[in-house]
Description:
A: alpha+beta; Ubiquitin-like (UB roll); C: Aldehyde Oxidoreductase, domain 3; 10 strands
Amino acid sequence: xxxxxxxxxxxxxxxxxxxxxxxxxxxxxxxxxxxxxxxxxxxxxxxxxxxxxxxxxxxxxxxxxxxxxxxxxxxxxxx
Amino acid sequence: xxxxxxxxxxxxxxxxxxxxxxxxxxxxxxxxxxxxxxxxxxxxxxxxxxxxxxxxxxxxxxxxxxxxxxxxxxxxxxx
Amino acid sequence: xxxxxxxxxxxxxxxxxxxxxxxxxxxxxxxxxxxxxxxxxxxxxxxxxxxxxxxxxxxxxxxxxxxxxxxxxxxxxxxxxxxxxxxxxxxxxxxxxxxxxxxxxxxxxxxxxxxxxxxxxxxxxxxxxxxxxxxxxxxxx
Amino acid sequence: xxxxxxxxxxxxxxxxxxxxxxxxxxxxxxxxxxxxxxxxxxxxxxxxxxxxxxxxxxxxxxxxxxxxxxxxxxxxxxxxxxxxxxxxxxxxxxxxxxxxxxxxxxxxxxxxxxxxxxxxxxxxxxxxxxxxxxxxxxxxx
Lengths: 79, 79, 141, 141
């Protein structure tokens, strides 16, 4: 199982701060993104960054391990 | 009478923080400076700025009024 | 002593933070700080409060990375970064940055660099609560 | 409330100064501060304390002029400048500058400008007290 987290404006558009995506062998980050984007197109309009296990990831072809924590994030507005 | 003040390193070299200089009609700032420089040459080696009544003065030909407050100062080192 | 890098709901004290910073070295000649505050007015709208959401674990990790990089890049003696989350009223403090160095220029430059980088790199989002409704803030690129 | 520009013997509190600064406007989004501290080491010599002499009336007048100019030049909402005189131990605070603006860049720039100008224009002199004797500090040109 992949745990996917959402925060701030993305969480508001998804309507949840956490969803689970079923893991399968050979899964890459782009698979999770494509799956969720189809379900929540409006939320993914504002997604700019992704993180896996707390690290920024730019390469959507990154292979995922089971139980990874994935986050899709909009532009930050802290400070 | 002209009141002349010294601070910090200049006061230390003069050996006083205040001296009086006798006023005379037509007196200019340079007169006071020349008089004191002759008495305290070592102090005036480090003098960089002069003030009259609390305002920076660059023109040594400034006429002085009786009871003016004159200060000869070294480079500042506050902060 | 409190951690040099923190995310917390409660307010912070500059006096406490500065004391903690100074405790790291008596060679510290200059301390620059930045405090970000909740304004009561933004882009023409009255703002009654600001609500913050954060990806806490990653935010703290990113803030620690920024602190480490600033220490090296500007030769700091110490630095601290505190960001509040939750609901913050108009006029209240949001974020605190302090940079201490032997001389003033690197402290001032590091402080400016840290707040600019924090806004770019740290996963925190703000929502402005106004009488006309709430709105997530879209940062200017 | 204490004056925004002061010369005093006693220590100051950042919390108090920041509160006073913030009280001037709820539109203040960024506050930059600079604190100068007495180092225990300077140009290779151990320093036990620093003693300050000031031409008080002119120093306060010059600090007020700097504050006014910074307010206009950087569009600040408020600014404060406090400088201590007398004898200050190693590690203690000497000078405090705070600049508050709607946004962070002018606050940070004004704070840097104010401490640079203060060192140039304000008639205050420091003497370092070391185990080898006292020495007035000659500023680098």
